[in-house]
């Protein structure tokens, strides 16, 4: 157990729907990162939050949004889902905003859009 | 922009053979961090090593060793005496500098260790 908890582990939904992925960071970690792993794009950074504030944005679609709550858990919202959104979504956490800290990844949420 | 290239998409070896995974990176920054992660068939990403750009010392951890060469922008990973449990996809990643804390991953190398 890495200490980073992602729920649900699997999600199957239809095109056009909206889903929410949840991530609880490792105890004491302030930063949360979201990554998408798909067959064609590989592992890509989506967005980072630090202590409730957005810190960095990657190739995140406008249909996707995220937030980090006061208790530091984070949610990634995916709307108007398309077949191409099917992927493994990882959450990672780190202790601070320093680049010297390591990242701890959760086990991922596998999203299948049918 | 940062870039990580893992030219080997798949490597197949027989148990007890050594296997070396290549990683070449591109960055304009002088301070950066390099990582290796393992993704077994179960899907999770397992952290293996982090190295900062000022530490070119090679590292050995059990059967794993890493060779960091700034002159060639490479951070190669060797598994000595491979075992079936080493079968996984291995990712090299880069962070730091202007790119901030986000990890830029290579495409991964799938290692298949046959008994």
List the helices and strands and how they pair.
The complex is a heterodimer of chains A (114) and B (115).
Chain A: E1 5-7, E2 10-13, E3 19-24, E4 31-38, E5 42-50, E6 53-57, E7 64-68, E8 74-78, E9 87-94, E10 104-105, E11 109-113
Parallel strand pairs in A: 2-11
Antiparallel strand pairs in A: 1-3, 3-8, 4-5, 4-9, 5-6, 7-8, 9-10, 9-11
Chain B: E1 3-5, E2 10-14, E3 19-21, E4 24-26, E5 33-39, E6 46-52, E7 59-61, E8 64-69, E9 74-79, E10 88-95, E11 104-105, E12 109-114
Parallel strand pairs in B: 2-12
Antiparallel strand pairs in B: 1-4, 3-9, 5-6, 5-10, 7-8, 8-9, 10-11, 10-12
Explain the overall architecture.
The complex is a heterodimer of chains A (114) and B (115). Chain A is mostly beta strands and 114 residues long. In chain A, 0% of the residues lie in helices and 53% in strands. Chain A is globular. Chain B is an all-beta fold. Chain B has no helices and 12 strands. Chain B has strands spanning 3-5, 10-14, 19-21, 24-26, 33-39, 46-52, 59-61, 64-69, 74-79, 88-95, 104-105, 109-114. Chain B is globular and about 45 Å long. Classes of the chains: A mainly beta (114), B mainly beta (115). Chains A and B meet through strand 4, strand 5, strand 9 and strand 10 of A and strand 5, strand 6, strand 10 and strand 11 of B.
Total number of strands of chain A: 11
> Main β-sheet of chain B: number of strands, strand sense, barrel status?
6 strands, mixed
Beta-strand share of residues of chain A: over 45%
Largest sheet of chain A: 7 strands, mixed
Largest chain-chain contact?
A-B, 28 and 24 residues
How far apart the termini of chain A lie comes to 30 Å
Choose one word for the global shape of chain B: globular
């Amino acid at each position: 157990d890495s200490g980073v908890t992602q729920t649900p582990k699997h999600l199957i939904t239809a095109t056009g729907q909206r889903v929410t992925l949840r991530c609880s960071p490792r105890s004491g970690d302030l930063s949360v990162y979201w990554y998408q792993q798909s067959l064609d794009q590989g592992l890509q950074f989506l967005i980072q939050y630090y202590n409730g504030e957005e810190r960095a944005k990657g190739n995140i679609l406008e249909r996707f949004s995220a937030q980090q709550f006061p208790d530091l858990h984070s949610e990634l919202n995916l709307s108007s889902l398309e077949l191409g959104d099917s992927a493994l979504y990882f959450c990672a956490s780190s202790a601070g905003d320093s680049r010297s800290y390591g990242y701890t990844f959760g086990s991922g949420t596998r999203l299948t859009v049918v | 922009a940062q870039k990580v290239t893992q030219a080997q998409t798949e490597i197949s070896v027989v148990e007890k053979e050594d296997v070396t995974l290549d990683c070449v990176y591109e960055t304009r920054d002088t301070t950066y961090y390099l990582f290796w992660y393992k993704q077994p068939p179960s899907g999770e990403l397992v952290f293996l090593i982090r190295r900062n750009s000022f530490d070119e010392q090679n590292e050995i951890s059990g059967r794993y060793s890493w060779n960091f060469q700034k002159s060639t922008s490479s951070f190669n990973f060797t598994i000595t005496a491979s075992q079936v449990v080493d079968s996984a996809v291995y990712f090299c990643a880069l962070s730091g500098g202007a790119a901030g804390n986000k990890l830029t991953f290579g495409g991964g190398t799938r290692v298949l260790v046959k008994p």
